[in-house]
Write a structure and sequence with these properties.
Length: 280
């Protein structure tokens, strides 16, 4: 707040002595304070409250009320001292008014343009033709040469447990874990590895094959269909997308109904956006 450092300390003393607010009928236009001929209304106090940093939420409302009244009084005193409104202030107020009014319309569109039925319909359309995605749970062993891979595959073919062989010979980080890679979806592994594993039946073991990392032998442990997200999972995302589409459509309608002009290419030097001296 715009206030001396003692602002909350002084008003806190008053708060201790006050046990409640005086009941009265007020509206946003009710005058709370005056500075000369200028009236400060309850609506202005409420707006100032909404603009306080979150850190002020810890203070009692009576402390905040007194502080906000003092803040707006001080601001008005300083504003009166400033005299006539400068061009810089006028341009700032124009921008802020435009932004506030636009934000209000955007909020209205966002709150009224999307229903639960719209979200459900968008969800259904998104997954109407979606193919099921199969995921794989596989294990592998990684060695440097084809000869080492052939020897490991021969041991597995002779009955040795894949995990035991992987723990013994694999140089990859999953070796101590028996080569288990966990679940992965298409695209998660290098193409050679994915192609070799996806060609297996559950329990099958590949022939040795090479990738950029070395020589592999892999086994397919399980498969499953990737769980499809529910409408509840995607509701916030879908709602936001529909709201943005509604706002864009409304902007297009408004632009089509208005006469809008824009600068011609090269009409203004883009560097002028930093020419703050023009505001003086």
């Amino acid at each position: 707040m715009l206030k001396h450092v003692s602002f909350l300390g002084a008003t806190a003393v008053a708060a201790v002595l006050s046990t409640g607010a005086i009941a009265q009928d007020v509206t946003a236009d009710t005058v709370v304070a005056t500075v000369g001929d200028t009236e400060i209304t309850m609506g202005e106090i409420i707006i100032a409250r909404t603009q306080l940093p979150q850190q002020y939420a810890q203070f009692p409302v009576d402390v905040l009320f007194d502080g906000l009244v003092d803040q707006l009084i001080q601001q008005q005193l300083l504003a009166d001292e400033a005299g006539e409104t400068s061009k810089r202030v006028e341009y700032t107020l124009n921008n802020e008014r435009r932004a506030l009014m636009a934000a209000g319309v955007i909020t209205e569109i966002a709150e009224t343009s999307v229903t639960e039925a719209d979200v459900q319909a968008a969800y259904d359309e998104r997954f109407a033709d979606a193919e099921e995605i199969q995921e794989f749970n596989a294990a592998h062993l990684l060695v440097e040469t084809q000869e080492e891979a052939d020897a490991a595959k021969a041991r597995i073919d002779d009955g040795a447990a894949f995990a035991d062989v992987a723990r013994e010979v694999s140089t990859g980080p999953t070796g101590p874990n028996g080569g288990n890679l966990g679940w992965f979806a298409p695209g998660a592994m290098v193409p050679e590895f994915e192609q070799a594993v996806s060609a297996l039946e559950v329990g099958g073991v590949t022939e040795p094959f090479e990738t950029q990392f070395g020589w592999h032998v892999a086994t397919l442990l399980e498969t499953r269909v990737q769980p499809r997200p529910t409408v509840d999972d995607l509701r916030p995302q879908i709602a936001q997308e529909l709201q943005e589409a509604a706002i864009t459509a409304r902007l297009d309608e408004l632009a089509a109904a208005q006469s809008v002009t824009k600068p011609e290419p090269g009409q203004f030097d883009p560097a002028l956006i930093d020419a703050t001296s023009l505001l003086d």
